[in-house]
Amino acid sequence: MKKLIIMLSTALMLGGIASAQKIAFEEYDLDNGMHVILHNDPSAPVVVTSVMYHVGSKDETPDRTGFAHFFEHLLFEGTENIKRGEWFKIVTSNGGINNANTSDDRTYYYEVFPSNNLELALWMESERLMHPVINKIGVDTQNGVIKEEKRSRFDNQPYGNIIGAVKENIFKNHPYRWTTIGSMEHLDAATLEEFQAFNKKFYIPNNAVLVVAGDFEKTKAKEWIQNYFGLIQKGKEIKKQTFVEEPITQTIRATYEDPNIQIPMVVATYRTPSMKTRDARVLDLISSYLSDGKSSKLYKKIVDDKKMALQIDAVGLNQEDYGMYILYGLPMETHTSADLIKEIDEEIVKIQTELISEKNFQKLKNTFDNRFVNKNATLEGIAENLATYYLLYGDVHLINTEIDLFHSITREEIRDVANKYLNPNQRLILDYVPSKAEARN
After folding, report:
1. C-alpha dihedral (152, 154, 155, 157), degrees to nearest 10
2. 3-state secondary structure the chain
3. What is the pLDDT of residue 294?
4. Domain shared by 117 and 224, yes or no
5. Are 291 and 399 part of one and the same domain?
6. CB neighbours (10 Å) of residue 263?
7. What is the pLDDT of residue 15?
8. What residue stretches are annotated with the Peptidase M16 N-terminal domain (predicted)?
9. Are residues 213 and 280 in the same domain?
10. Residue 240 covered by a domain
């Protein structure tokens, strides 16, 4: 009884926090098609300015991969009014920080400044959009930077190419089949004109959302936004191609050799639907239940109790068109990859045939309530979430309401969705092993 009271109290507390954290915002469009979202929070004298472009690695062609990520680097090189090498100096000398990141679906840039530098941030992002300098010296410089990034983060990192190995086997038609960092050979072969054409096609106001979040005066912010972005010419409409993957109807088996490892890893991956769907959210709950941390079903069973693996874990990649639920484990010497898969399958079958307990169901809800609060705990997080919900989900109001969707999921849905997507004939089994040369040494 005491445990039940504590559980209910926790749920009520988290629910209260979630309600109190409602994010207020205003959104509108400029005449050139750029979407603008404003979130005012005067609690600290800080302002975040960010721009998300609807361009990621899925917008590349098979013989020119890596362009979207390349531009994440290239567009810090300078503009007609910001000299090469000056971008970061301007930011730091004015008390700010900035960064950018790329996914398969979008590219995101942001600055965090003291509130009195909002105009500077808006000018700099408008410069990136309107006056980028894309020349040979910048392309050559960033080509070298990205090659080093690939070597350090992927090629020379133990287990560094797992995601790439999974993607190339589970996607046959969709551009998700290649990695975001792309091919160095493709970047080497690309001409300057190709880079300039990519910029002209995707870096346009009607393919972007601008977010300002923090302490600012709204009337003045709107005036500056109009002055710096409103006069930028609207770009040609982008016609996005639709790529459809046929359902997986029999187990895909593949092997990847990694010279940087000594312990083999087994990877079981299920292709999942678009993150915008209800089923994707149900699968998020299933993933958390099975494989989220050391208290999860799989970790407690396989690592703690049976001591069959050094590690068992998972990652869920939720994306605009398709997602992936990737389970991976490192078998102990006396056990095989097949042993781990057998144990995983047993737990999945339990979800498919039995309703999870009310206690575990409530624990899941508490976990997702906590995540919801944490996602919006910082201005940087709020700014990125506002941009993401607008650009990729098509509904910025989800920043406040998505938790209600999770709350509406039932235990019966968890069982049914597990039956729909998590079957042995619907997955990839990847043996990620030491290279044969390494094994001989």
Report:
1. 70
2. CHHHHHHHHHHHHHHHHHHHCCCCCEEEECCCCCEEEEEECCCCCEEEEEEEECCCHHHCCCCCCCHHHHHHHHCCCCECCCCCCCHHHHHHHCCCEEEEEECCCCEEEEEEEEHHHHHHHHHHHHHHHHCECCCHHHHHHHHHHHHHHHHHHHHCCCCCCHHHHHHHHHCCCCHHHCCCCCCHHHHHHCCHHHHHHHHHHHCCHHHEEEEEEECCCHHHHHHHHHHHHCCCCCCCCCCCCCCCCCCCCCCEEEEEEECCCCCCEEEEEEEEECCCCHHHHHHHHHHHHHHCCCCCHHHHHHHHHCCCEEEEEEEEECCCCEEEEEEEEEECCCCCHHHHHHHHHHHHHHHHHCCCCHHHHHHHHHHHHHHHHHHCCCHHHHHHHHHHHHHCCCCCCHHHHHHHHHHHCCHHHHHHHHHHHCCHHHEEEEEEEECHHHHHC
3. 86
4. yes
5. yes
6. 15
7. 40
8. 36-179
9. no
10. no
Into how many domains does the chain fold?
Answer: 2
Cβ atoms of 422 and 257 closer than 8 Å = no
Q: Which residues pair with 174 in a beta bridge?
A: none
* Res 437: pLDDT: 61
pLDDT tens by residue, 361-396 = 999 999 999 999 999 999 999 999 999 999 999 999
Rounded to the nearest 5 degrees, what angle is found at the Cα of 110, between the Cα atoms of 109 and 111? 145
Domain of 265: which CATH number? Answer: 3.30.830.10
Domain with 188 in it: 25-229
- 316 and 189: one domain? no
Q: Which residue has the tokens 């900035």?
A: 98
Name the stretches of the chain with pLDDT < 70.
Answer: 1-20, 437-441
Q: Length of the chain, please?
A: 441
Whether residue 176 is found in the same domain as residue 110: yes
Same domain, 309 and 206: no
Does one domain contain both 87 and 203?
yes
Give the number of C-alpha atoms closer than 13 A to the C-alpha of residue 421, restricted to the C-beta side. Answer: 25
